[in-house]
Structures are given as C-alpha cells and as structure tokens.
Specification:
alpha+beta; CBS-domain; two-stranded antiparallel sheet; CBS domain-containing protein; CBS_dom; Diverse_CBS-Domain
C-alpha cells in the first residue's frame, strides 16, 4: 500500500497571519500556484486559494493591505502522511477538492494535489475518477 508520504509535495510555499492579501497574491504569481497554506510556525492555521482572494477579498472590496484573516479558510480537510493514496483519492473525490494539506501532529508536512496522484501513475483510475467528479461539479456550477 502506497502512502501520501511517497508522493506529496514537501517544499510548500506558505503564508502567515502577518501577510496581507496582496502579498499572498504575489506569492501565487511568483510560484504559479493557486493554493497557499497559512501557518503559525509549522502549525496549519488554514489555507487561502486564488478563489478566496477573489470572492472574499477583491470582490468584497477589500484592498491589498487587508489581513489574510479576512479571506482564509480555517475549517480545512487534512490528511496525515501515512494515509493511503487510495483513501486520499477517495476523500478528494467525495469532498470535491483538488489539494489537501498533509498534517502530522498538528504540523504541516506537505500538500497533496490531485495531480500528484495522476502524474506519478499511482492509482491513476482513482485520481482520474476524482478529477472527473470535481470537474463535473465545477462544470455544473458554472452553468
């Protein structure tokens, strides 16, 4: 049984509660990412997505100097590094999410993206099904 530890990204770009939404947007641009875990030390506090910046930040008429706390998602699903890739894929499919913070003993140790499941050809069917279900959900939401 393969575990998340074998395929997760460990070199994560993170933010802190001291960052503002402009600084987070710049990090997203610099690293070409749309998801940033927010940490206090190594403890996961929440995450900010590019969608959070748009919906809760700029569309709510907040300026770039607005504190990250205005846009952060705190109630975040997480997994541990010893979670099986099967279980991770199933969680991602059932919750319609593309990225999961990996947390051991309260500390962020990595991020698992749905692409990590597919790119490394581990449980490709499950990853494909999860991606398909997520894409189908997003497609329905658009129309």
């Amino acid at each position: 049984m393969r575990t998340v530890n074998e395929i997760m990204t460990t070199d994560c770009v993170t933010a802190t509660l001291q960052d503002n939404i402009y600084e987070i947007a710049v990090k997203m641009k610099q690293h070409d990412i749309g998801f940033i875990p927010v940490v206090e030390g190594k403890k996961l506090i929440g995450v900010v997505t590019d969608r959070d910046l748009v919906i809760r930040g700029y569309a709510a008429k907040h300026s770039g100097s607005t504190a990250v706390e205005e846009v952060i998602t705190k109630d975040v699903d997480t997994i541990t590094s010893n979670t099986s890739t099967d279980d991770a894929a199933n969680l991602m499919a059932s919750k319609q999410i593309r990225r999961l913070p990996v947390v051991d003993n309260g500390e962020l140790v990595g991020v698992l993206a749905i692409g990590d499941l597919a790119v490394r050809e581990i449980f490709v069917n499950e990853a494909g099904e999860a991606l398909s279900a997520i894409s189908e959900h997003e497609h329905r939401a658009v129309h």
